[in-house]
Amino acid sequence: QVQLVESGGGLVQTGGSLRLSCAASGRTFSSYNMGWFRQAPGKERERVAAISGSGTAIYYTDSVKGRFTISRDNAKNTVYLQMNSLKPEDTAVYYCAARSMGTTKYDYWGQGTQVTVSS
């Protein structure tokens, strides 16, 4: 079992930055691939970024490439999402999720944190 708690959301102006954190419980954090997802009102949830257990493999959806950076600190059981040059279309609830290595499904989810970018 993994419990995930996100923090760091808030209200920011266009062009601003936020850093999301996701703290995980458990002693096997490095065995999980981690992802950040977001869901805006009326839209489907989308995967924004993902990182492998070792941190060597990273994925970004096209709309955030060059603006967002995912990272992890396995010693602190935490994954981060640094978001720069924020746009109003980045407004959404952001979730972190954990996926066991060798599987394709994210089994564990946080409660979400709201990010609002004003124009």
What this model shows, in words?
With 119 residues, this protein is an all-beta fold. Helices cover 0% and strands 51% of the residues. The protein is built from no helices and 11 strands. The chain has strands at residues 4-7, 10-13, 18-24, 32-39, 46-51, 58-60, 68-73, 78-83, 92-100, 108-109, 113-118. Strands 2, 4, 5, 6, 9, 10 and 11 form a 7-stranded mixed beta sheet that branches. A 4-stranded antiparallel beta sheet has the order 1-3-8-7, with no helix packed on it. The chain is globular, with a radius of gyration of 13 Å. The mean pLDDT is 96.
Low-confidence stretches: none
Cα Rg: 13 Å
Tally of DSSP β-strands? 11
Beta-strand content: over 45%
Q: Which structural class fits the helix and strand makeup?
A: mainly beta
User: Share of helix among residues?
Assistant: under 10%
- Work out the helix count: 0
Shape: globular
Element-by-element helix/strand order: EEEEEEEEEEE
